[in-house]
Specification:
About 45% of the residues lie in helices and about 10% in strands. By secondary structure, the protein is α/β, with parallel strands linked by helices. The chain has one domain (about 5-185): Uracil-DNA Glycosylase, subunit E, CATH 3.40.470. It is globular.
């Protein structure tokens, strides 16, 4: 069976798109193989490209602050991106770059991890899962996709560029913590076959 480290090795050697020519390091992602939460950002930035690790710059520092606010540490979650190589000047990823990368690497990481909750960070990450939806409408609310939950957040970097979003991101992260607590409380009911209250019934969507 394929492992996360084997996928990471494929990422580091990947030449599927032109971003490979300009990278210093590909950034597969990192975290425990049994992570309950998977955080998915847009793509590596300067610091990530230098170190080969996700979210190690200013946005990563804010992400760690967000995790701490709900009692989590970076080491407890898996963190990756839609694309694994830095676009020039941190521009938005092109559709062909996403298509050359995400179905081959992110999809395999999700399959291997089997996370309970996928937390998308920003509009590009959300768009890969729900192409027709808007981050401004869905942020801070859980949606069920197949066997797992999707929880969209604004990208931590958005707060660096627009300080007015900082409190929104903090509030949404608090909602994520509350949602995780509800999942924990509902787990015994799920094991005994009890149904959720009607207001908690999820909307069924297709992941891929």
């Amino acid at each position: 069976m394929e492992t996360l480290e084997q996928v990471a090795a494929l990422v580091r050697a990947c030449t599927r798109c032109g971003l490979a020519k300009g990278r210093r390091n590909a950034v597969p992602g990192e975290g425990p193989a049994d992570a309950r939460l998977l955080f998915v950002g847009e793509g590596p930035g300067y610091h990530e490209d230098q170190q080969g690790r996700p979210f190690v710059g200013p946005a990563g520092q804010f992400l760690e602050e967000l995790l701490a606010s709900i009692g989590l540490r970076r080491e407890q979650v898996f963190i990756t991106n839609i694309i694994k190589c830095r676009p020039p000047n941190n521009r938005d990823p092109l559709p062909q770059e996403v298509e050359a990368c995400a179905p081959y690497y992110l999809a395999r990481q999700i399959e291997l991890l089997g996370p309970q909750v996928v937390v998308t960070l920003g509009r590009h990450a959300l768009a890969w899962f729900l192409p027709k939806e808007s981050i401004s409408k869905l942020h801070g609310a859980a949606r069920q996709l197949g066997e797992r939950w999707l929880f969209p957040l604004y990208h931590p970097a958005a707060a660096l560029h627009n300080p007015a979003l900082r409190q929104t991101i903090l509030n949404d992260t608090a909602k994520l913590g509350q949602f995780l607590a509800r999942l924990d409380r509902s787990a015994p009911a799920a094991r005994t076959g009890q149904e959720r209250p009607a207001e908690e019934q999820p909307q069924q969507l297709s992941l891929f």
